[in-house]
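G., before I forget:
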Amino acid sequence: MGKLYFKYGAMSCGKTTQLLQVVYNYEKNGFNVLLVKPIVDKKGGDTVVSRIGASRKVDLLLGENDKLSDKVDIEKLDSIVVDEAQFLNKEQVKELWLISKLYDIPVITYGLKTNFLGELFSGSKALIEKADQIDELVTICSCSKKAKFNVRIVNGEYASSGDEVSIDGIDSEYEAMCPECYIDKVLKIKKI
Ligand SMILES: [Zn+2]
C-alpha cells in the first residue's frame, strides 16, 4: 500500500533541499513525479527554491478550493511530492491520503508543524491525523539546542501576534528557536 508521509521541521531544517533531492531521484530513475504546492504561499511563485540554491518548477499550484484529481490524471503518476504542506486544507489532505491508498503510490509531504504562535497549521493537523509515517527533520537554535518554534521577525522585533500567513508587502523573516529561547526572547516570561 502507498503511504502518506509528513516530513516536518522548523525553518531552515533543509526540508526543501531534501524534497528537491527526492524529486530528482524519482525523475533520474524514469518515474513520473508530480510536484505540488498550495497556492497560498506566494514565496518563489511557481518554483520551489531551497536555501542552498537548488530549484525546480512546480507541476501544480493547488488553489484553496482545488481538488488534485480534477487537475491531473493520477493514473499516470508514480509519486506525489508536496511542498509547504502546512497550507493544504483538511479536504486536500484527505484526498492525498485516499490517493496514496487507492492508487498505491507514495505521497510525500513537507512542511512546518506549527505557525509562529506555536500552534498547529490546519494542514499539519490533518497530516498528523492521517499520515502513515511522520518524520521530524531537525535543525538547531542559535544556542545550539534543538529548534522547535518558528519565530516571526518583523522590523527586527520578534512578533507574538498577527495573521498566520504574513500579508504581502510586509516582509517578515523567520528564525528557528528552541523552547528555552522562545520563552525567554519571544514570550519574555522569566517566572510564573
Ligand atoms: Zn535556543
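The two ends are 49 Å apart (CA to CA). The chain has a mean pLDDT of 91.

More on Monday.
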